[in-house]
Specification:
Keywords: Pyrimidine biosynthesis, Transferase. The chain has 316 residues and is α/β, with parallel strands linked by helices. It starts with a helix and ends in a 6-residue tail after the last helix. It is globular and about 55 Å long. α2 crosses α6. 47% of the residues are buried. The chain is 39% helix and 14% strand. The protein has a 5-stranded parallel beta sheet. It has a 4-stranded parallel beta sheet with strand order 2-1-3-4. The longest helix is centred in the last third of the chain and has 20 residues.
Amino acid sequence: MSASQTSLTFQHRHLLGIEGLTAAELTMLLDMAEDAVAVSRQVEKKRATLRGRTQINLFFEPSTRTQSSFEIAGKRLGADVMNMSVASSSVKKGETLIDTAMTLNAMRPDIIVVRHSQAGAVQLLSEKVACSVVNAGDGAHEHPTQALLDALTIRRNKGRIEGLTVAICGDILHSRVARSNILALQTLGARVRCVAPTTLLPAQIGRFGVEVHHDMRAGLKEADVVMMLRLQRERMTASFIPSTKEYFRYWGLDREKLACAKPDALVMHPGPMNRGVEISSEVADGPQSRIREQVEMGVAVRMAVLEAVARRLPEC
Ligand code: NCD
């Protein structure tokens, strides 16, 4: 079945997370994204799929790459895209969120892409509006399009996801990217390892069905993919690491630690990177790095997601 035929079976109006999606649904989105990669590599990149539709990018947290990626994706599909950055005061967050949602809803958008610092905020917003809602990252909960773009990057490079060993390393505790990736990769049949110091792992990590490693070299052994995470210092409420220098020594990906993984292991990072903290520049810019390709796949995956949810929108 071609991607356009399978996409007819995507049954969700929103994309709030990877949780609850089946392997078939994830694969369908990845197949649709492959088509979008081809479109994005042409001179004429514009499609009419979302012509007449209004997409609002509502970002309560600052973001450059995710917001611009969603903006380019929407524009390539022909939507009118509006960016709204809202600085949220921590006290009034709940109220501000609902008020903003109701105000925007009255303007009759078709899709709202939301990023918020609180887990669950995107779901709450989706319950208040009449349009489709796409989660662009909510607190430490989920970041579904990041997991999809990571899966697409892996599949394009390795030809499959099933049976691969993926090591997710670093600040897993504060990472919505890690959570969405664990769910997506496991659903698609990969073995997932979480490699981190105890202070940067969620207490309930055992429930995720992942292998846990507290030693970087052991955790990377024979891995097909090494996924590094940013040390999210802005989310840290206490001292989770002794110093960034010491962190790099034990947990930073350098050439020597990478040598523990398979020789053709892919190096990935969602960005923005702290060079010299979780990854050395040599590795980030080295031959195994797929970090720039991830950015390209981000636009394609977001085009696929926007198209898939838009198919559930009413025609009138
Ligand atoms: C990620 C995020 O915001 O969760 N970045 C991104 O989407 N560009 C990862 C991160 O901030 O470290």
